[in-house]
């Protein structure tokens, strides 16, 4: 199932550690503190435990949102990006 992970963490070092964990699990960054990708239930729980450990006593909030295919079809976005981030004539943005 697709999973959206978003977080709000004040300490840069911890925030970077969380982003690296998300990348380790194959999630793709969609915003500075938001990652998205495929995770089964076991991998999502494993990542949640590793993030919890990495967060430690640091103030922060991390949310995991499993998203089913039906809901994923309803996703919409509004973007206004610099031209350097626009890939191709169809206006699709690249990360």
UniProtKB/TrEMBL annotation:
Transmembrane segments: none annotated. Its EC number is 3.1.-.-. InterPro entries: CRISPR_associated_Cas2, Virulence_VapD/CRISPR_Cas2. GO terms for molecular function: hydrolase activity; metal ion binding; RNA endonuclease activity. Keywords: Antiviral defense, Endonuclease, Hydrolase, Magnesium, Metal-binding, Nuclease. Mg(2+) binds at residue 8. It holds the Pfam family CRISPR_Cas2. It is an enzyme of class 3 (hydrolase). It comes from the Bacteria. Its cofactor is Mg(2+). GO terms for biological process: defense response to virus; maintenance of CRISPR repeat elements. CRISPR (clustered regularly interspaced short palindromic repeat), is an adaptive immune system that provides protection against mobile genetic elements (viruses, transposable elements and conjugative plasmids). CRISPR clusters contain sequences complementary to antecedent mobile elements and target invading nucleic acids. CRISPR clusters are transcribed and processed into CRISPR RNA (crRNA). Functions as a ssRNA-specific endoribonuclease. Involved in the integration of spacer DNA into the CRISPR cassette. HAMAP family: Cas2. Belongs to the CRISPR-associated endoribonuclease Cas2 protein family. Homodimer, forms a heterotetramer with a Cas1 homodimer. This is CRISPR-associated endoribonuclease Cas2. It comes from Heliomicrobium gestii (Heliobacterium gestii). The lineage of its organism: Bacteria, Bacillati, Bacillota, Clostridia, Eubacteriales. The gene is cas2.
């Amino acid at each position: 199932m697709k999973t959206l992970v978003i977080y709000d963490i004040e300490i840069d070092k911890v925030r970077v550690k969380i982003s690296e964990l998300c990348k380790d699990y194959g999630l793709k960054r969609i915003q500075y503190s938001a990652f998205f990708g495929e995770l089964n239930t076991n991998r999502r729980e494993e990542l949640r435990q590793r993030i919890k450990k990495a967060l430690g006593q640091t103030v922060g909030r991390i949310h995991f949102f499993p998203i089913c295919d039906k809901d994923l079809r309803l996703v919409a976005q509004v973007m206004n990006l610099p031209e350097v981030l626009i890939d191709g004539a169809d206006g699709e943005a690249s990360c």
